[in-house]
Amino acid sequence: MPAATAVVHSDPKILGGTPVFVGTRVPVQVLFDCLEARDSLDRFLEQYSTVSRDQALAALDLARDALLARARPA
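Below the sequence we write its predicted structure tokens.
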């Protein structure tokens, strides 16, 4: 899996520091908003063609890993 810095970037000069996909001005939050609205990953990628499938999947992997790292065994 790519390092977080290879997928997501935050720079005060780009959208006021909002985390975006590297090499784009697309906020990572947009991916989660689209999925929450039941849009498919393919639909997101059609709408935001500057984001690659690999970037989107890597962002989802990072989110999953962060969530699982915080989970405590039952």
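The chain has a mean pLDDT of 90.
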